[in-house]
Amino acid sequence: MFEDPRVTWAETALGGFRDRSILELGPLEAGHSYMLQQAGARRVVAVEANSRALLKCLAVQKVLHLDRVEFLFGEFNQYLEHSSEAFDVVFASGVLYHTVDPLRTLELIAKAAPHVFLWTHYYDRQLIEDQGLQHQFEPALVTGFRGLSVTMAKRPYGQALEWKGFCGGGVDYANWLDRPSLMALLGLVGYSHLSVAFDQPDHPNGPAIAICAEQR
After folding, report:
1. Least trusted range by pLDDT, from 17-21, 22-26, 76-80, 161-165
2. How far are the Cα atoms of 99, 137, 138, 171, 173 from residue 158, in angstroms, in the given order?
3. Do the Cβ atoms of 60 and 66 come closer than 8 Å?
């Protein structure tokens, strides 16, 4: 994670991180936080809800002198709901598919910054079945959101919550968006220019994609 090509790609796709303020959602072990500071970010605010992960972040911060990174403990959706601070970029790697309400998360991200990087898994019934992962999901449902039909599938965590390495949120399930819904939602909340990379329909944990998006 301290040499992640997704970060390098995002830096190029979003026009660089130098002198920009960045809100990082779910820093996990601070690998991306380190890369963002190394890329010249003026300030990084990193919000982490997992206490074990936060302790690792603080240790990395001390060892690698991350003096332009501020780590906060808590749920990032709550931070987004209550913070009035504006950022240049929201960096959200490996977190959207851990949310109960990804629709609201994307809405809040759009209010926080005109640029966003997402790396996320998404739901695709055929791909999920091809990988033998269908037992992890409940049947997909279609819901309405601001005039848009959105397809999501609930993924209960079950015993995974007890794993020491579990890095999801503090609830016992999440909702995965399907890919068309994800793309449509980004447009709906104001991101009109999208770049896609690291498209992995055969990712072992479920299909995944990296997206950089800008409001124009």
Report:
1. 161-165
2. 15, 11, 12, 10, 8
3. yes
pLDDT tens per residue, range 50-61:
999 999 999 999
The CA distance from 216 to 208, in Å, is 26
For CA atoms 95, 97, 98, 104, the dihedral sign is positive
What the block records as the tokens of 178 is: 């399907």
How many whole angstroms separate alpha carbon 28 and alpha carbon 66? 15
Rg (Cα) of the chain, in Å, rounded?
17
Rounded distance between C-alpha atoms, residue 113 and residue 111, angstroms? 6
What six digits make up the tokens of 156? Answer: 């209960």
| Max intra-chain CA distance, the chain | 49
First and final C-alpha spacing in the chain: 30
Q: Which domains does the chain have, with CATH numbers?
A: 5-214 (3.40.50.150)
